[in-house]
Amino acid sequence: MQQRLEELDQAALRRRLRPADTQSLQLIDQHGQPRINFGSNDYLGLASQPLTAPARPPGDRLPPVDQPPRRGSGASALVCGHTLLHQRLIDALRQLEETEAAVLYPSGYAACSGCVAALARRGDLILSDALNHASLIDGCRLSKAERFVFAHADTEMVEALLKHHRRSFRNAWIVTDSVFSMDGDIAPLQRLAAIAARYDATLIVDEAHGTAVLGSDGSGACAALGIKDQVPIRIGTLSKALGAQGGFVVGPQVVIDYLLNHSRPLIYSTAAAPTTIAAALLGVQSIAEEPKKREHVQRLSRRLRAGLRSLGKDQPADDSLAAGVPIVPIRLGAAEAATAAAEQLWDRGFYVPAIRPPTVPPGTSRLRVSLSAAHSEQQVDALLEAIAHLPVA
């Protein structure tokens, strides 16, 4: 083990925990050195807000919930860990996602890996995007299905694989992120949905980085593209724009019932703490109540991307859906270059994480800027000025 760790040191790939005081995620403080934080996935700036009692929605017939919520759930959801707060959150997610049913998981990773591993069985076919999140990749590996990885966003390859293999398998599943976490680009969801319909396949989409950020109703990229009804199974997280922790899957009642009976991370994990669920419910309620947060972070994304284009950095067109995604990569190639750039930005007052293999493929190390509604235009402009002075950028 020590030898492998030393090899990681030599390749500038070793990871370490760096404790930080982050009472507010807008700033990150290490050893008394506060820096503007451009590394968090708190896209709407909700994670730092105080926990208050979620409002009871109109028509809510569930009994009132004692306040404050207890610290822990005490058991798995199927034993006695599923509280009235959990049920209220499920109802709120069903309404947001306009779907028949929903189920909660203790993390987004558990939702992705547990959903795919349970649904895809021996005798099935899975087609998975090459840049999918590790949780989707692990779900595909844990399933007993035959797996093919298609080149990133390559719908021609997807169709060719289905045309050649579909008849040999009972079910076919196309698995993809909606917004890819390291590049901030959006999957060709409309084309994938059309291919899935043509070959009797089911499209599973992970909306971890789209939920509460994209779509006029804040329900994600599928909504923004008008194809929610063509994507029967969607996965989301409570730990990014919603400012809490956990994951969820939405879909037809039969799918959710199947997961409740076959998805091991759901069955054998303690349910998320009621305090966490209360925070997530506040996040879902804020999507409808505070659309200006979503609009603000999208404006910041376009502002940063326009500034990077002026510095010669490749970025999506300003009128594209991807231009509003608050994940903005700056590719530098070598891991050493990314690490050096991150350290230089730290010295200038900014925390921007360096992303290196194995999170991204070798030769594609980068800075990954994550924007939040808590940021200001002035902070984005100051970051751009600091990036302009980077010798390696």
TrEMBL record:
EC identifiers of the protein: 2.3.1.47
Gene3D superfamilies membership: Aspartate Aminotransferase, domain 1, Type I PLP-dependent aspartate aminotransferase-like (Major domain)
Top-rank lineage group of the source organism: Bacteria
Cofactor(s) for this UniProt protein: pyridoxal 5'-phosphate
PROSITE patterns: AA_TRANSFER_CLASS_2 (PS00599)
InterPro entries the UniProt entry points to: Aminotrans_II_pyridoxalP_BS, Aminotransferase_I/II_large, AON_synthase_class-II, PyrdxlP-dep_Trfase, PyrdxlP-dep_Trfase_major, PyrdxlP-dep_Trfase_small
Biased composition (Pro residues): 55-67
Keywords (A to Z) from UniProt: Acyltransferase, Biotin biosynthesis, Pyridoxal phosphate, Transferase
A molecular function GO annotation: 8-amino-7-oxononanoate synthase activity
Region (Disordered): 47-74
GO biological process, alphabetically ordered: biotin biosynthetic process
Catalyzed reactions per annotation: 6-carboxyhexanoyl-[ACP] + L-alanine + H(+) = (8S)-8-amino-7-oxononanoate + holo-[ACP] + CO2
Domain Aminotransferase class I/classII large: 36-387
Pathway(s): Cofactor biosynthesis; biotin biosynthesis
Family: Belongs to the class-II pyridoxal-phosphate-dependent aminotransferase family. BioF subfamily.
PANTHER family hit by this protein: 8-AMINO-7-OXONONANOATE SYNTHASE, CLASS II AMINOTRANSFERASE/8-AMINO-7-OXONONANOATE SYNTHASE
Subunit composition and interactions: Homodimer.
Protein name (Swiss-Prot/TrEMBL): 8-amino-7-oxononanoate synthase
Organism expressing this protein natively: Roseimaritima ulvae
High-level lineage: Bacteria, Pseudomonadati, Planctomycetota, Planctomycetia, Pirellulales
Gene that produces this protein: bioF
